[in-house]
Amino acid sequence: MAYEIKQSPLDTEPDIAIGIGLPMSTSAGSGFKLTYTTIEQAVANSKNLLFTNHGERPMHPTFGCNLAGVLFENNSELFADTVEETIRSSFDFWLPYIFISKLEVTPDAVDANRLAIKLSIALVGNKFDTRSIQFALDGEVTN
What is the rounded CA–CA span in Å between residue 47 and residue 63? Predict the structure, then answer.
């Protein structure tokens, strides 16, 4: 069976920056870190959505996953499902061009008060080129 892979025309231009990556400054401290492919920008947009809480973005009060809002909820069996549903619904609304191929929300092996979140994302139309994002619910990025 043949698959059609859609690629952004900007991905073929190596000299055209698509957006700004995260973290915003380079290691040398000289300006912004730029992204040159659509999937790199999708990763930066995903991190931005994951670490933004409701009310932080002017003119968009519901932007973000609001994970800090669920940080002090009771850690029950349904808590991981609640976090997973929060992430999926935020991605569906704010980043519909990103497909979440895998999302794991598990209690952290070292600290029982943290959740380890791992997600694999791809662009809709090109589910073969995936990227991974891993972080703990306290916001520390380990990617």
Answer: 13
Q: How many helices (H) and strands (E) does the chain have?
A: 2, 5
The identity of residue 78, as a single letter, is: L
DSSP class of residue 53 equals P
Alpha-helix residue ranges (DSSP H) falling in the chain: 38-50, 77-94
Task: Tell me if 119 sits within 8 A of 141, measured CB to CB.
Answer: no
pTM for the predicted model, two decimal places: 0.81
How many other C-beta atoms are found inside a 10 Å radius of the C-beta of residue 129? 15
Find the mean pLDDT for residues 107-121.
82
Angle, alpha carbons 122-125-129 (nearest 5°): 35
pLDDT digits (tens, 9 = 90+) for 20-56: 887 766 666 667 788 888 899 999 999 999 999 999 9
